[in-house]
Every structure is written in structure tokens, then in C-alpha cells.
């Protein structure tokens, strides 16, 4: 359940980085601990919460959610970063807290923290709020400009390591927890999660307001990462209908938004890839041959893997994640994006990278 954050009532003292130093390198290692930051004077320190006035780990600004090319799309304005509501800021706490039983370890909050204070254990995220030599507590109430200043100091700084190293055990664990946590989420959860994961992967996205019957598509996609696109999000067996539904989306975008079909990037987001012999892949192949439309596929686990590696998806050709009956595996596509082999012997959880035969 979401706990609404009310900034005006929070009254906590900030932490700041001393004026005479700035970060020059960030090392995440293999995860399981806060990032180690090297500063310009040679000191090292763990990333630590600066207690932002407008916490980026909790909320997007409305500007971050805008997609100007789809300004008439009935977008859901839900600006929660955490799709499960696991992160909140209780008034008695000096910093946000994460409810480990609701956290799916997606890394969304980690990717947005300006001071690298959030880190991933093998199954949930944690926030480091301990002051140190380089993150000093001050008897001042936080202001947005302090968050912005810290963010500017960290922008462009070299980062090494990963939020969390992938392994078959980690992803099997993720899947089991995810299935349980997802049972208690609202009907908008799949779209909310997919939208936020795509944004973190560098693809602008907006999700349809539930109850709006004018337009059926789950997400529209826009810059950066893709010029324009549409997405269907399905976590269950309904994924088999997603290729047909996404053709409907394209027809609507061509008819109502006057977009060219050749410029629209279609992306199906699922929890698992369907069976390789299913109609899903055959239909995608037929559409490619007959209509020259390349329907891309991506799984939730793959999007999370990319976030853990701070990777970005760039749909330059519009078919970067296209797979069909002949190549029903995301592994080579993701390895191209990551620039390295993926260390999963059994493919993580079922249907995460490879579809079942
Ligand atoms: S965890 Fe990070 S983003 Fe969240 S309030 Fe602390 S410093 Fe800001
Ligand atoms: S890692 Fe994901 S699920 Fe966990 S608190 Fe952060 S945003 Fe929420």
C-alpha cells in the first residue's frame, strides 16, 4: 500500500558534502553494500542520505513524467518511484525507510539517489543514513537547492561495479518474492512498474489512466531512448494476445496522432517470455515479414538486470529487442547492450532471458 509523502511536515536536518571537496569516482563493487565514493582530496566514504527536501528516491517531478509528443494521451500522473510502495518517509525518521517485505529489489530508488545512499542486498534495498567525514550533518532544514547541488556534483562522475551482481540464485529469489508481492498490488501495478523501469532504462514512458476507455494501450513511449512508441504490458497468459493488441495500438496512433507506422517502436513487456513454439513468436515473425513492423519483447527481469548495470536502451533502429521464432532469446540482445556476457547458467527464472522450448 502507498504511504503518501508529505514534504511540508517533514522537519529533519540535512547532511552536506564539505565545500572544498567533490566526488571523483563511485565504486559499487558487486552490490550488498553502499557505494564507496572517492573524493577529490583522496578520502573515501560510503554514500549517505542527504535527506532531500524533494526526495528523488520517492517521487518523480511532473516534468520528469511529461511526454510532449503525446500531450493528449490520458496519462496516469502517479509519481511514485517505488512501484510497490515499499519506500516511505515516516515523520519520526531522519531519512526514508524501506519495508523489506514489500521491496522487489528493482533498483529504481537506487538509480535516483543523488548521494548514492541506497544499495541492494540480495533480496531488498537499504538506505545508509550514517554521517561520515564526507557527508556531514548540519543543523539546517533541507532545501531543494541542496539536493540539486549534490546531484550536480555527482553528474558525470565515473561509476564502476554494479548495484547487484546477477546470478541464478538472485533471480530465482527475485521471481519468488515478486510473485508474492505482486498479489497484493493494484491492477495498475504492471503498467506502473513497466513505466518506471523503462524510464530508468532511458526510455520516456507514460501509462494510461485506468478507467479511460477512449484509448486502450498500456504505455506510450517517447524521447529519450526512442522517438515514439507504444507498449503492451502483460504478466500472465494474456501476453499471448499482446502482439495482436500492439498492432491495434499502432493503428490508433497512426489514425489519431497522425504518426507514421514506420516510426512507431512497439515493445511488449512481460514477466516471462512465452514458449518458443507459441503463436506469440510466430505472429511476431509474420508481422515482420508482411507488414515490416518489428515488435520488440522485453521481460521485467531483463529491465531490472539493465538497471543494476546502469545500462540504457537506445531504440536507434527500433528493433534492438526484436526476437521471433528463430531467435526466441533476449540473451544476445542484452549482452550487446551490456557489452559483456550475462553470468546466468540456467537463465535466471523461467522465461526471463530464454523462452521455454
Ligand atoms: S535516500 Fe537519497 S534520494 Fe532519498 S532522501 Fe536520502 S539522499 Fe535523497
Ligand atoms: S528497490 Fe524497487 S521495490 Fe525496493 S524500495 Fe527501491 S524502488 Fe521500491
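Q: What amino acid sequence fits the structure above?
A:
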Amino acid at each position: 500500500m502507498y504511504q503518501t509523502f508529505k514534504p511540508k511536515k517533514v522537519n529533519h536536518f540535512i547532511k552536506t558534502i564539505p565545500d572544498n571537496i567533490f566526488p571523483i569516482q563511485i565504486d559499487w563493487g558487486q552490490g550488498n553494500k553502499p557505494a564507496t565514493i572517492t573524493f577529490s582530496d583522496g578520502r573515501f566514504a560510503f554514500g549517505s542520505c542527504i535527506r532531500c527536501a524533494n526526495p528523488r528516491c520517492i517521487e518523480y517531478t511532473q516534468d520528469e513524467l511529461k511526454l510532449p509528443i503525446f500531450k493528449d494521451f490520458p496519462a496516469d500522473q502517479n509519481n511514485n518511484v517505488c512501484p510497490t510502495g515499499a519506500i516511505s518517509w515516516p515523520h519520526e525518521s531522519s531519512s526514508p525507510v524501506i519495508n523489506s517485505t514489500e521491496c522487489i529489489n528493482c533498483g529504481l530508488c537506487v538509480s535516483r539517489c543523488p548521494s548514492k545512499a541506497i544499495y541492494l542486498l540480495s533480496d531488498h534495498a537499504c538506505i545508509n543514513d550514517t554521517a561520515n567525514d564526507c557527508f556531514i550533518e548540519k543543523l539546517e532544514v533541507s532545501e531543494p537547492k541542496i539536493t540539486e547541488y549534490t546531484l550536480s556534483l555527482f553528474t558525470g562522475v565515473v561509476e564502476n561495479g554494479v548495484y547487484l551482481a546477477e546470478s541464478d540464485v538472485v533471480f530465482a529469489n527475485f521471481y519468488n518474492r515478486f510473485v508474492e508481492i505482486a498479489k497484493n498490488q493494484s491492477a495498475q501495478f504492471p503498467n506502473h512498474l513497466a513505466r518506471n523501469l523503462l524510464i530508468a532504462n532511458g526510455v520516456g514512458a507514460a501509462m494510461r489512466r485506468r478507467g479511460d476507455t477512449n484509448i486502450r494501450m498500456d504505455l506510450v513511449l517517447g524521447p529519450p531512448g526512442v522517438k515514439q512508441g507504444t507498449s503492451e504490458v502483460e504478466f500472465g497468459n494474456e501476453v499471448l494476445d499482446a502482439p495482436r493488441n500492439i498492432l491495434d495500438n499502432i493503428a490508433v496512433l497512426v489514425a489519431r496522432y497522425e504518426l507514421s507506422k514506420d516510426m512507431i517502436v512497439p515493445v511488449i513487456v512481460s514477466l516471462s517470455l512465452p514458449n518458443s513454439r507459441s503463436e506469440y513468436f510466430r505472429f511476431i515473425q509474420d508481422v515482420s515479414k508482411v507488414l515490416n513492423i518489428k515488435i520488440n519483447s522485453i521481460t521485467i527481469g531483463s529491465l531490472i538486470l539493465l538497471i543494476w548495470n546502469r545500462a540504457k536502451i537506445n531504440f536507434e533502429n527500433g528493433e534492438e529487442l526484436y526476437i521471433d521464432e528463430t531467435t526466441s532469446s533476449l540473451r544476445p540482445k542484452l549482452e550487446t547492450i551490456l557489452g559483456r556476457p550475462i553470468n546466468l547458467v540456467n537463465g535466471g527464472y523461467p522465461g526471463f532471458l530464454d523462452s521455454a522450448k
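Q: And what stands out in the fold?
A: The two ends are 38 Å apart (CA to CA).
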